[in-house]
Amino acid sequence: MTNLKRAALAFGILLIGAALIPFVGMPSETFTWTRYTSAYQDAFLEINFPTGQPGSTFTVTGGKFPANSQVTVTANGFVLGNLAADSSGSFQFLVDTSSAETGFYEISASGGGQTAATGFFLADHAPLRAPDTSGVTFALPAGLAIQTSFLPFVPK
Amino acid sequence: MNRVPAGLLPRPSPVRLTAQFWRARIRFAGGLLAATPWHVGLAFLAPLAIYILTLAPTIYNLDSAELTTAAATGGLLRSTGYPLYLIIGRFWSRMPLGDVGYRMNLLSAVMGSLTVGGVALILRQIHVGRLATIAAVGLLATAPYFWSLSLVAEVYTLHTALMTSLILAVLFWSRRPGYQTLGLVGLIVGLSLSHHLATALLVPGVIWFLLWSDPRRALRPGSILAAMGGLLLGLSLYLYLPYLQAASPAFNYAGVYDASGIFHPVNLQTPGGLWWLISGQAFATQMFAYTAGELIGEAWWLIRHIWRAFFFVGLGPGILGSLLVFRRNRALGGMLLLMFAFSAGFYLQYRVVDKDTMFLPAYVIWALWLGIAFQWLLNLLGARDPADLKTGLLTALKITLIGSVLAALAWNWKAVDLSNDYTTRERGEAILAAAAPEALVLGWWDTVPVIQYLQLVEGKRPDITPMNLFLIDRNELRALVLAQLGQRPIYLDGPASEIDGRLRGRPAGPLFEIQLREPDQ
Q1: Contact B505 A16 (CB under 8 A)
Q2: For residue A49, which residues of chain B lie inside 8 Å, CB to CB?
Q3: How many percent of chain B have pLDDT more than 70?
Q4: What Å distances lie between residue B172 and B17, B148, B366, B372, CA to CA?
Q5: Distance CA B339, CA B329 (A)
Q6: C-alpha angle with apex A55: A50 to A56, nearest 5 degrees?
């Protein structure tokens, strides 16, 4: 075998892994314990009441998001605003429904690659929920409600 | 010359005898040290220096907090018990260096360095040259997961250190096949099993080596007896676990809580109880949990994992090395192949979120293959005449090998460096600061073990009751929370509504204080 063939073989074997770079990518993630916390609990959103009268203020609590991540809050896909999770990945905000009409609202929060959702119904017959804390408040605009209707149940 | 009869000679004092005993051993160790080639010493010291520079400075989270607290306080771990780790940790945690969390992190660094040194020693035994060895162990030491798991209290690097000892013992037996050397192999298997049951994945390879090398000697009744004797001696360390339980340790992860919050330890002083802990039945549902289609995806994941581990230059040579050693030495080649196949294969099908931390034994085998392949490549371009073109190509190859190690060191340093990571301690202290007196704190591995460390090792907030949700059934948890709500503050690290729809959480520091939702009117 000529010298060049030997060299080609040697460097070919050594650098064959480079062919996988487009498929694999160089390691770039950090190796901290926070990588595994989603194993025990995914990011979540929790709301204080599932129902309320239009004009109510709901408190939404978020947890297990990446620490200090910027979180975008939406209602039925409409962006209400942003806030920052704290160093534990937790946050809390209020949703003011003074301008909103009856119907279903899905509240979603996305940040740091995590997403969580919760929801509530606005109904005229439900209690009026007063704010039970203070903090970042997002006003729900009109025209977002998802109207639900129920088919009558007719026994045979 | 007339000799004085031995019976008339003054008997040396016990102090003198002891001094002579230790002088002889120090001289022997010194001799061994002097005989150790410099590159093997470098293979131990260089990674140790790097690991100390990047070591987590204090208590670390998840398994690290559990392992540190159990070792330091004489506590009990979850399955499979890890008695050897607990014994070593009990002494190691007492050294006068940093806090207890730092000391146990340092243990992982020393074991990781011993592993790298052990791999260098194995490569020397199979006549791999210095440069090829340095390149191979350099890539192993700087592999991201190997490096990161050498920086925190964990079980993996002790397991790999024992693994390299086992391979060295097996090679030693092949040079001096006898009862004593086979007994040593059995002892190391036993000790390793008393640390991590994954040692069982290495045994088929060891058996292959013994039977392929010298089946007649290996299968002698005396040999089998010696091996079994060593094995049982090593396994006897599991008796440490019932001994620990007899002292009713404050830290105990071998049991469950009931709806009253009372902990019921598994009785490790019965064979059934001890077997329950050792056999890892708590994790049985995660084993063989993939479909055939999913396993193909996991296999591709493993290839990418190895690629990333050895900084892309390790893939081709690793495969080449496995073929070369199998061709030249069926005993050794078969042993390494079987060890890799069983280790990688088992964890491939193990459905846990942190399985990427469990391939260190496979890395050790891959590093051995790398050393063999690198030496073959160097021989391929070997040249003596400086005027020969091959000399230039050989130099280029050498530069590429060493350059890869340095590049891996530089690339991975930032990703794995934990030298300024106090996040676990900060989280634990923030929880203790936010929790009201006599609180019940419920949480998972990222919450409870660090609280227990701060309580039991550093004596902080003994009034709080931490409870790991891994140790309580969902129904019992619900009953416990509903019974104790209103009587004491209860905190949770997740959504309270998952326990019961009538509950909600109010942010309280890193946790959520559980409250009863106001009823609809």
Answers
A1: no
A2: 517-518, 520
A3: 93
A4: 31, 31, 21, 19
A5: 15
A6: 35
What's the count of helices (H) and strands (E) in chain B, helices before strands? 22, 7
H or E, element range at B303: helix B292-309
Q: Give the tokens for residue A99.
A: 């301008």
Are residues B500 and B481 in contact, defined by beta-carbon separation less than 8 angstroms?
yes
Rounded Cα distance, A152 and B323, in Å? 71
The token pair at B277 is 């802990």
- Cα–Cα dist B14/B231, whole Å: 34
Provide φ and ψ at B251, rounded to 5°: -100, 110
CA B74, CA B253: separation in Å to the nearest integer?
12
A40 in B contact zone (CB under 8 Å)? yes
- Which amino acid is it at B195? H
B298 min Cα distance to partner chain A (Å)? 14
pLDDT in tens, B270-304: 999 999 999 876 566 666 667 888 888 888 888 88
Note every long-range contact of B406-409, with CB atoms under 8 Å and residues 24 or more positions apart, other chains counting. B407/B311, B408/B138, B408/B139, B408/B142, B408/B143, B408/B310, B408/B311, B409/B50, B409/B138, B409/B142
Lookup: tokens for B488: 């004491």
Q: For residues B318 and B306, is the Cβ–Cβ distance under 8 A? A: yes
- Please report the number of interchain residue pairs, chain A to chain B, with beta-carbon separation below 8 angstroms: 151
A16 close to B (CB below 8 A): yes
The predicted pLDDT at position B521 comes to: 43
For the whole model, what pTM was predicted? 0.88
**Considering only residues 111 to 140 of chain A, which have any Cβ-Cβ distance to chain B shorter than 8 Å?**
126-127, 133
Instruction: Decide: residue A14, CB within 10 A, 0-12 exposed, 13-18 middle, 19+ buried.
Output: buried
Query: Is residue B284 a contact partner of residue B295, using CB atoms and an 8 Å limit?
Result: no
